[in-house]
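Hi R.,

Here's the chain you asked about this morning:
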Amino acid sequence: MIQTLSQEFALSQHPHSRKGGLMGLAACSITLGKDIVTESNKFDLVGFIPLLRERIYSNNQYARQFIISWILVLESVPDINLLDYLPEILDGLFQILGDNGKEIRKMCEVVLGEFLKEIKKNPSSVKFAEMANILVIHCQTTDENIGTLTF
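And the predicted structure, written out as tokens:
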């Protein structure tokens, strides 16, 4: 199925076919995501983070849901310390938190809540200096979705 979606749809010259193929691949990866990450010793987190960091700024609601889902999957894997990479994705998470979609905002709040739990459990491993500027900027926002966030 993945081969068909990628070769015949995602790489298609027709934009609607390409979009459909990408959506199908996204659905497959969400479904298989935890298994791929947890069952494979070949998953390259260091290589994946730049892709995540780049795509976290998408304005597309489906892309945002997909990104948040991946972050939740990665955060749930015991052998992965996603907290190390929080400074690289925190700004994007706050951008998503300002989304108009209630479901996307709720998913983002869950992710931020999970990170906060990890920070409280292990504050010595947190890169506070790298996140300070991001937090200050977003604390001053006029966006009511971000400004009223409390944990």
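The chain is about 70% helix and 0% strand.

Let me know if you need anything else.
M.
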